[in-house]
Design brief:
Elements lengths: L1 E5 L3 H14 L5 E6 L15 E5 H5 L3 H6 L3 H11 L9 E6 L2 E3 L9 E2 L2 E2 L2 E2 L1 E2 L9 H15 L5 E2 L6 E4 H10 L1 H5 L6 H12 L8 E2 L2 E2 L19 E3 L23 H20 L5 H13 L3 H9 L3 H11 L4 H5 L2
Parallel strand pairs: 1-2, 1-4, 2-3, 8-12, 13-14
Antiparallel strand pairs: 4-11, 5-14, 6-7, 9-10
Helix pairs in contact: 6-8
């Protein structure tokens, strides 16, 4: 089965592909859809066949609208829905972000059994409260449109690879075409899976809780709506591997001799961080920091402005400090 990425980050994509080569043995080809200026860069050496497609050829008549759009969520949906028109894409494929890395070996039965698909959700869209980013706006707009069509409203943008039926993707794209024509920033994962579950329930198993480590980045980003019962993929954030942060002792590259041990340790560290935060195990300064941050939730524009003042890596360092300090402190608990 193909795995299909949309990416403009060559180095991250290449590292992720090595994880996939080793831990997703049913994958037979990797497809990268990237900007035309980067097509040559994405022809990686790999044990898998690698196909690289210029995103302009995927978008076709929608290219101008894609280039003019400023909303990241809208652009993602427009591009991924356009995959349904591509002859180079198989009838069934795994759709993924370039930073979704398997932690354990994943069999095809993780995605499909008895001719029915598995799907993995992480939130009830009706409960989503944040309004800071394009992604947040997309969650609210997707919820409104799904409910208006009488579909369920779960969020399947779980930051892990998921299986897609191309014909069903084309049908879902058609069902939401009016919204895209109006520039609505749909969450493409949630539009597809909620539509499929509602219209063709016989083709899907019941929705499963997501299995993604580091989604969210930090426990303070939002409370779990549904809690993973295991972790099979890592949502890779380079910043977490920087000095003094939670994964700073680990390489970002795949290690074929100790990947299982490394995965278990990452899961232990992130779970300890989660449990400590939920139990309120932080200093008085940490409690005051998160109280102020919760108050800022009422003023999304102010919070966006404050976030823009610090690069993401520094934001991560600040959050990590107030949740318990360095990764070595967490390890020694």
């Amino acid at each position: 089965m193909q795995i299909v990425y949309i990416s403009n980050r060559r180095d991250i994509a290449q590292e992720t592909l090595v994880h996939v080569e080793n831990l997703m043995p049913f994958i037979t080809e990797a497809v990268f859809v990237c900007p035309g200026s980067q097509v040559r860069d994405f022809h990686f050496r790999s044990v898998l066949p690698v196909r690289v497609i210029d995103e302009a050829s995927v978008l076709g008549k929608d290219l101008t609208r894609f280039q003019a759009a400023g909303d990241h969520q809208f652009k993602n949906c427009l591009l991924r829905f356009s995959l349904a028109r591509m002859v180079d894409i198989d009838e069934e494929f795994i759709m993924s972000d370039d930073d979704n890395r398997p932690l354990v070996e994943i069999p095809l039965s993780f995605y499909k059994s008895a001719n029915r698909y598995f799907s993995y959700y992480y939130y009830d869209l009706k409960k989503w409260s944040a309004r800071e980013t394009d992604y947040d706006r997309g969650q609210h707009e997707t919820c409104r449109i799904l409910e208006g069509k009488g579909h369920d409203a779960l969020s399947y943008s779980s930051h892990m690879p998921q299986i897609i039926n191309k014909n069903l993707l084309a049908e879902a794209a058609g069902a939401f075409q009016g919204s895209l024509d109006r520039g609505v920033p749909l969450d493409e994962w949630s539009a597809y899976f909620n539509y499929g579950q509602s219209v063709y329930p016989e083709r899907f198993h019941s929705p499963e809780p997501f299995k993604t480590l580091c989604w969210p980045l930090f426990p303070s980003d939002w409370d779990y709506d549904v809690r993973p019962d295991e972790f099979c993929f890592e949502n890779y954030y380079p910043m977490l591997y920087e000095n003094s942060l939670i994964f700073s002792d680990f390489s970002t590259q795949f290690d074929g001799t100790s990947y299982a041990e490394i995965a278990n340790e990452k899961i232990r560290l992130r779970t300890a961080l989660q449990n400590g935060f939920e139990a309120g195990q932080m200093s008085l300064w940490g409690q005051m920091f998160f109280l102020c941050r919760d108050m800022a939730e009422r003023f999304p524009s102010l919070k966006r402005h404050l976030n823009a003042m610090l690069p993401p890596s520094r934001q991560a360092a600040v959050l990590h400090f107030f949740m318990g300090g360095s990764s070595k402190k967490i390890k020694n608990r």
